[in-house]
Amino acid sequence: MEKDGKKSVKSVLKKSFVQKLRTILDNKNISQKQFAEQMGKTTAQVSQILNVEHAALPTFDFLVKLKEIYTIDLNWLLSNDELQVKPALQNPHMSEIVLRNTINNDWFTPFIPGEVRYIKEELSNGMDINKFFHKMEEVEGRVYISNSFPSGLHREVKVKNNKKDSIDEERQEVLRKNPDLRNWEFYTVVSLLQFGFGRFAERFYSENTKIRILKRMMDYFKTGNKRELYFLDSSHSNQPDNFFYGFPITRLVNHDHIICTETNRYFRVERNEKRYNEILKLFTEKKDIVFLNSSNSLECIEVLRNCLINKKGNVKSFLSGLSSETREILERSYSNPF
Known about the structure:
Layout: H1 9-27, H2 32-39, H3 43-49, H4 60-70, H5 74-77, E1 83-87, E2 95-99, E3 116-120, H6 129-140, E4 141-146, E5 159-160, E6 163-164, H7 166-177, E7 182-188, H8 189-197, H9 207-221, E8 227-233, E9 249-253, E10 257-261, E11 266-271, H10 273-285, E12 290-292, H11 294-309, H12 315-320, H13 324-334
Parallel strand pairs: 4-7, 7-8
Antiparallel strand pairs: 1-2, 3-11, 4-9, 5-6, 8-12, 9-10, 10-11
Helix pairs in contact: 2-3, 6-7, 9-11
């Protein structure tokens, strides 16, 4: 799989996959023969899959069955710290997996035009990504594009040893106290519904915490001339990942900086005015994307909060509380991906 001792994406992925899968089988005391029978494969096929030196990689159907039988987290099974996600050369709005090169945790040296730097948050060493965001966002604010609702700006400040996290609080204050800083936030409709009614989400929130977060958002977006909130319906796009530049969360900051969130607290930071403007144009012109305008988005927040207060924790109650215009857009999205 490797030529001249050089690593490839495929070899790194295969080695990591085999090591993790073998660990699972050993912990469950499952023999290779038993595994083959359970997966509907021959022992020869399983032998190839479990052989690090063999080029065979599991198929999508194999992975799905693996998840169903053994309840394995596929994100964990297929992840590896030696790999990184970056925009594909053929299409900068999509992503590709490549070998991770040197991680540069020099956050505060100014970026030169065209530079791409990968950084990793390391809380044990005092490397809190909020310090970096604070510096970037205080210049002119941000455009925040995410398929995970809500952003850290609206979550409650973490408390450690009966003290508020000073870095977390300081960063929130940058965008909260200055109404002249731009803060445009874009989320998918699905992420809003998942936050309100889903059983599984990126973070666990109690019902009371959700209610407080939604109230904070309502108060925040009703003040300031440069604060806008939008939800978009990704069910109308053949390539919904295009909305996010190929990453779960993308931030546009400091005139020409693009910050993309990866897995395992890695961040891709690029200084590229051309790409910055391309992404900004996509979300400001709103062409070929179904949006709710900012006032309708605030209506969604308010109705969702009322549902939670009144213990009506289902999408039907939420939709019935909306205006006909907003409900029509949401029902189209709800019928497809959620």
